[in-house]
């Protein structure tokens, strides 16, 4: 297990180095993402960077440019003027932002934006500075330079998503816990693995309990709507897969621990994506052949994570290992054929494709469920189990009212 942790940590560190290469931001063309119907229009959220140093502006624009639309400003005055016309999702402010420093800049920008739910991140080189202490006091997240690529994206994602998560307080208690517990687990698990902390499957199962209860109580719309607009795509995709897999299983008559296996397997099936460079994982447009090769390694990286979790059911491993396999053996990573894929693997493949097609990504809008199902039907029996696909389609039609606008 120690060797597995070391291997996973190595890939995460390599991801951070790779993420700093500006050439990765500019690559276009090449291989697709394995799904027909992908569009390449971009839906990028806007980040303002207020920093007097051009080099710092350039570094952040390069690091973030594949995933966000970055606008840079040398002073607060020009940033305030731009914010009135182009509402950002996040504003990053340097401690030295002119004319009166970073704290004053944040205060002026907040006043300009009024009650709009815009996130702020402070930037400093000294965690003990007056600016840093002020950020702590005002509960403004801040980063200390130099910062790793992984930590940078983690903080940005949390800050942009905070207004979304704040709205969870208006949901019913169980639905709120379904969202809060899964996002906390999803954020903590990779760091627990990297730090060598023991991870118990029972903790993961307990975190998914409210999700299963929401599914059984027909509260799908509440929990699925709760992740709309959340900036952590891998969490959103994984949460939706957990919900749809649990719903599929429930409609097929599965109960209790079987549903928990489906929900936990869905939630952690893509954890290996933490080791994929952000510029590949969130690239607007087609992936090159080399990038596609990197992307496909997320399955093996995810299995390395799961190998560090104690007492994981075999079904959870199957979901993580085989959700990209195809009936004719052309899937990955093992090229397994129909005779080697049990019903759980086939269900996982169906739900993962449906989730990917109906997810909103920066490189495509979500497909409506009916269009996604049509695309999946056209994939034919070489890709997906047609009998299970028919049952999945019937399930969605039967519960269409729960899935409206999600």
Query: Which strand-content bin applies to the residues?
Result: 5-15%
Count of distinct structural domains:
2
CATH class term of the largest domain: Mainly Alpha
- According to CATH, the homologous superfamily of the largest domain is Hypothetical protein af1432
Cα radius of gyration in angstroms: 22 Å
> Helices and strands: which structural class?
alpha/beta
Tell me what the structure shows.
With 406 residues, the chain is α/β, with parallel strands linked by helices. The protein has two domains: 45-162, Rossmann fold; 171-402, Orthogonal Bundle (Hypothetical protein af1432), CATH 1.10.3210.10. Helices cover 57% and strands 7% of the residues. The protein has 19 helices and seven strands. The protein has helices at 2-19, 23-26, 54-64, 76-85, 102-113, 130-138, 149-166, 173-195, 201-216, 220-226, 233-251, 256-268, 278-281, 289-296, 298-306, 314-322, 343-358, 369-379, 386-398, and strands at residues 45-50, 68-73, 90-94, 119-124, 142-144, 199-200, 309-310. Strands 2-1-3-4-5 form a five-stranded parallel β-sheet, with helices on both faces. The chain has a two-stranded parallel ribbon with strand order 6-7. The longest helix is centred in the middle third of the chain and has 23 residues, at 173-195. The two termini are 39 Å apart. The model is unreliable at 13-30 and 34-40 (pLDDT under 50).
């Amino acid at each position: 297990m120690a060797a597995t942790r070391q291997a996973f940590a190595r890939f995460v560190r390599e991801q951070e180095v790779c993420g700093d290469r500006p050439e990765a931001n500019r690559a276009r063309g090449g291989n697709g993402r394995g799904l027909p119907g992908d569009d390449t229009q971009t839906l990028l959220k806007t980040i303002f960077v207020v920093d007097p140093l051009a080099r710092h502006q350039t570094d952040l624009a390069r690091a973030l440019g594949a995933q966000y639309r970055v606008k840079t400003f040398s002073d607060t005055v020009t940033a305030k003027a731009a914010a009135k016309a182009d509402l950002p999702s996040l504003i990053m402010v340097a401690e030295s932002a002119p004319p009166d420093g970073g704290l004053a800049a944040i205060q002026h920008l907040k006043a300009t934006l009024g009650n709009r739910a815009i996130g702020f991140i402070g930037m400093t080189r000294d965690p003990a500075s007056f600016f840093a202490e002020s950020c702590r006091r005002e509960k403004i997240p801040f980063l200390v330079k130099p910062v790793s690529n992984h930590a940078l994206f983690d903080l940005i994602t949390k800050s942009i998503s905070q207004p979304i998560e704040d709205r969870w307080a208006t949901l019913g208690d169980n639905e709120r816990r379904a969202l809060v517990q899964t996002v906390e687990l999803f954020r903590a698990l990779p760091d627990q693995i990297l730090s060598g902390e023991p991870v118990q499957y029972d903790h993961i199962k307990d975190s998914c309990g409210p999700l299963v209860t929401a599914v059984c109580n027909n509260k799908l719309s509440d929990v699925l709507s709760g992740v709309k607009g959340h900036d952590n795509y891998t969490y959103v995709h994984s949460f939706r897969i957990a919900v749809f897999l649990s719903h599929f299983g429930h409609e097929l008559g599965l109960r209790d621990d079987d549903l928990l296996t489906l929900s936990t397997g869905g939630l952690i099936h893509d954890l290996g994506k933490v080791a994929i460079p952000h510029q590949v994982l969130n690239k607007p447009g087609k992936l090159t052949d080399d990038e596609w090769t990197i992307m496909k390694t997320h399955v093996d990286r995810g299995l390395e994570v799961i190998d560090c979790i104690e007492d994981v059911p075999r079904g959870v491993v199957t979901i993580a290992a085989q959700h990209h396999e195809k009936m004719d053996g052309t899937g990955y990573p093992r090229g397994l054929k129909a005779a080697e894929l049990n019903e759980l693997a086939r269900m996982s493949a169906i739900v993962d494709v449906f989730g990917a097609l109906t997810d909103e990504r920066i490189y495509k809008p979500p497909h409506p469920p009916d269009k996604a199902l049509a695309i999946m039907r056209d994939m034919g029996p070489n890709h997906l189990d047609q009998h299970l696909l028919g049952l999945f389609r019937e399930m969605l039609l039967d519960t269409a009212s729960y899935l409206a606008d999600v």
